[in-house]
Amino acid sequence: MKIAVVFPGQGSQSVGMMNGFAGAAVVERTFQEASAILGEDLWALAAGGPAEALNRTVVTQPLMLTAGVACWRAWRERGGPMPAFFAGHSLGEYSALVAAGALRFEDALPLVRLRAQAMQEAVPEGTGGIAAIVGLDDSKVALVCAEAAQGEVLEPANLNSPGQVVIAGHRAAVERGMAAAKAHGAKIAKMLPMSAPSHCSLMKPAAERLRERLAGVALGAPSVPVIQNADVASFDDPDRIRQALVEQLFRPVRWVETVRHLQAQGVTRIVECAPGKVLAGLVRRTVDGVEAVAITDFAALAAATA
Fold first, then answer.
1. CA angle, 156 as apex, 147 and 159 as ends, to 5°?
2. Which pairs count as long-range contacts for 43-49, CB under 8 Å and 24+ apart, including other chains?
3. How many Å is the maximal CA-CA distance in the chain?
4. Residue 170 annotated among the catalytic residues of the structure
């Protein structure tokens, strides 16, 4: 059996998201390590919120990075095997690089906080938006974006599964896009709880700030290939990894292609490392013949590693 381990990004956070891992020493140690580095009690935030705090980009990104790394460490401590591939959805790509040994956890935490700050400051809170469109194919969503932009930015941001695409841009354009999508037959058009419109061209100023910070961050070749979002490819060269992380901010997450690529490489089991079941659900809707397992709590971890 060939395994891939994947990590979710923003959108999987929720109050109480780590409660199922309470008492797991390796998980709690990871949160303590992150909290000491960032000067903020991430475990308390995960447990008690409030939701408004968890959904702020500058909070969500370090929190989800920590959750992914904590879950990965628990997987390994329980005897879970090294996978053949890693991948991460958007922010989850940083968790994947940490798990693969290409990026140190202590470097990743301030890096993703800077990433989050740059994203938020590139588009002042309330002026950007991001929405899920369900029930239209990719070409129809692209048409909707072109129709509804009206001189503002509106672009496909996450190609998540067949018939599920996230759009991002100026908030008014996103609202027009949601209405246009419904008019074109979309089953669902829903604004998502994210305070920055990631993976669209509004993020180019943030990408330049990230490029400057990445220049001073140590990166190495991953011990296991990490399939990166922007290119659906893995890289050993640190400079190419840096470039992929920069471009990831303003290019779409090509998750459908990522899952199909993993299947084409012989992967038959994909394990989602972190709270929630978002990626496992996307895998099931994208390919047949690949088992998708979500490690949502310690019981699920024990079952997955049995």
1. 140
2. 43/18, 46/15, 46/16, 46/17, 46/18, 47/15, 47/16, 47/18, 47/19, 48/15, 49/15, 49/16
3. 54
4. no
Q: What is d(CA 152, CA 132) in angstroms, rounded to the nearest whole number? A: 18
Of the candidates 254, 305, 259, which has an alpha carbon nearest to the alpha carbon of residue 280?
259
Residue 90 catalytic? yes
Taking each continuous run of H as one helix and of E as one strand, the counts in the chain are 13, 10
CA dihedral (119, 125, 126, 131) positive or negative: positive
Among the listed residues 89, 199, 234, 261, the single catalytic one is 199
Q: Which helix (H) or strand (E) holds 106?
A: helix 105-122
Both structure tokens of 6? 């994947």
- 211, amino acid identity: R
- Residue 255 confidence (pLDDT): 97
Please state, in angstroms and rounded to a whole number, the distance separating the CA atoms of residues 142 and 127.
21
Rounded-to-integer distance, Cα 288 and Cα 260, Å: 10
pLDDT along the chain (306 residues), means of 10: 94 89 94 96 92 85 96 96 97 98 98 95 90 95 97 97 96 97 96 86 97 97 96 97 97 97 98 92 96 94 89
Looking only at the bridges linking them, the beta strands covering 164-170 and 154-161 are: antiparallel
Which amino acid, residue 69? V
Residue 268 CB contacts under 8 Å (≥ 6 apart), including other chains: 1, 2, 3, 289, 290, 291
Contacts of 303 (CB under 8 A, 6+ apart): none
**Catalytic entry in 12, 35, 89, 90:** 90
